[in-house]
Design brief:
alpha+beta; Heat Shock Protein 90; 3 domains; five-stranded mixed sheet; three-stranded antiparallel sheet; 11 helices
Length: 491
């Protein structure tokens, strides 16, 4: 004899499963944000909520199930089915959430969860009194497969941080796993009336038990949902408070970063000015010509003005008032940067090769900031090549898409020390090869111009820096592959 299910109770059973699955996944989401002992209560609550939802789903569905013969429930077997659901679900959640996360843990948790769902169902069915039940093995096996497969899919949503829509999908899958297993198990059952069967004294009326368990469990699950929401609200308040503290710390750190940035950027022109001043003093001591010393004084004055320009540009960037843009001759800018580097006695000049295609000299940008970027990258390259026997540096400019100019600076040095070249552009990143805060600032400047700055290790040896800048109107010039003339040495 087969029974019939009433649609209203089927929907109630699905609602119970969905509510419990949502509470369980929500509690797991909160547990992932906790550490140590703070995780255990939330994971336990998630397991208990899930186990209770399995139990409630079963009895809600059974409340709408009718057969010709009436039936009741054995109290001891009913209690055992509840215990199996609670223990199995809690164990599954604990396995799935155990750190570190591993795929086999999710699979193991799915097996335990599927077994818990099936155990609760079949032990709950064994609690029925007044009828005998015969099962179709094929449908029993199908019910196990449904429970395990759907549990595995749902646990994928419970073991990773997900958006609320994804958690809702996970809760729906888990609810369908519980309900799918139940109704597959019911399809496997054939009921037979046993005339001699006498309902034991411990037998409970099915309708009364279902109403009591279902109503009470719904209340418990709603309380768990409210508690979960309260815990999440408390966590949001805590995060808001922490965010305020982080913002205050960031402002303090920002002041230090600004000071570090200015110190780094001002160091270049001021060092160059000091080098030119040294040449003047050296020239006076050796009786150098007035014209030569006047040239050095003019260059020192130019670098001091450049330091003032850097401060002005930094102020403009901070105030977001913008900076002036004009046509910049890249080749002329590189020449000036090389003169600055040659004035530094601590740097060894590599073998330079500068290649510009016809008309690829002019870009649109701020002259001072463009030279800031170029001198940073060139200085890094010179420092990286200091230990090479035959240091080489090749600078090329060529057209890029969207009316940009691509400038590449390739060397044959030791290459980038970091496995991830992007780390070079992190704020305040430094190393013994001269890579430091300047690259972070350089990228900020290039991106403010609408371009990009990145670096890659060469195949074999060395590294290449790439930067793009918007092209200005080209000028008609022949291909230039010369090396700029060296600054005249003192004496």
């Amino acid at each position: 004899m087969q029974g019939e299910h009433q649609l209203a109770f089927v929907m109630l059973a699905l609602a119970a499963a969905l509510l419990g699955a949502w509470v369980a996944l929500d509690l797991q989401e909160q547990a992932r944000a906790r550490e140590g002992r703070a995780r255990a209560p939330l994971l336990a609550a998630a397991g208990l909520a899930l186990g209770m939802s399995i139990f409630v789903t079963h009895f809600m569905a059974m409340l709408g199930f009718s057969i010709a013969a009436g039936f009741g429930y054995d109290a001891a077997w009913t209690a055992l089915s509840l215990l199996l659901a609670l223990v199995g679900s809690t164990a599954a959640v604990a396995i799935a959430q155990r750190r570190p996360a591993r795929p086999w843990k999710t699979s193991g948790a799915a097996l335990v969860m599927g077994a818990a769902i099936c155990a609760m169902h079949y032990v709950g069915m064994a609690a029925i009194t007044g009828v005998a039940i015969v099962y179709d093995p094929a449908f029993v096996a199908l019910s196990f497969l449904i429970a395990i497969a759907a549990s595995w899919t749902a646990l994928q949503f419970g073991t990773r941080r997900r958006a609320i829509s994804a958690r809702a999908a996970g809760a729906l899958l888990l609810a369908l796993a519980i309900c799918g297993m139940h109704f597959a198990g019911m399809a496997a059952a054939t009921f037979r009336v046993v005339p001699a069967a006498v309902r034991a004294e411990a037998s409970l009326d099915g309708t009364a038990l279902s109403l009591f368990v279902g109503g009470g469990s719904f209340v418990l699950l709603f309380l768990a949902l409210i508690a979960s929401g309260a815990a999440r609200a408390h966590e949001r308040q805590r995060l808001t408070r922490l965010q305020g503290e982080l913002n205050r710390a960031a402002r303090i750190a920002g002041m230090g970063a600004v000071a570090t940035t200015l110190a780094h950027e001002l160091n270049q022109p001021l060092t160059a000015a000091a080098n030119y001043t040294f040449l003047v003093k050296h020239g006076l001591a050796k009786g150098s010509g007035v014209a030569e010393m006047r040239e050095w004084v003019d260059k020192a004055e130019e670098q001091i003005r450049r330091a003032g320009e850097i401060i002005r540009k930094a102020r403009a960037m901070i105030s977001e008032s913008g900076v002036s843009r004009s046509r910049v001759d890249l080749r002329a800018s590189i020449d000036r940067c090389l003169e600055l580097l040659r004035a530094d006695a601590g740097l060894k000049e590599p073998d330079l090769r500068i290649e510009f295609d016809r008309g690829e000299r002019l870009v649109h940008g701020d002259p001072v900031q463009v030279e800031q970027v170029l001198v940073n990258i060139l200085r890094n390259a010179w420092q990286a090549l200091a230990q090479q026997r035959q240091p080489r540096l090749t600078v090329r400019a060529q057209p890029a898409k969207d009316d940009f100019i691509l400038l590449t600076l390739a060397d044959n040095g030791p290459g980038l020390p970091q496995e991830d070249p992007e780390e070079l552009f992190s704020a305040l990143k430094g190393s013994g090869t001269g890579l430091g805060v300047g690259l972070s600032i350089a990228r900020t400047i290039i991106e403010a111009h609408g371009g990009k700055l990145w670096a890659e290790n060469n195949i074999g040896q060395g590294a290449t820096f790439f930067l793009t800048l918007p092209a200005a109107l080209p000028v008609a010039e022949d291909r230039d592959e010369s090396v700029p003339p060296r600054l005249a040495a003192a004496g």
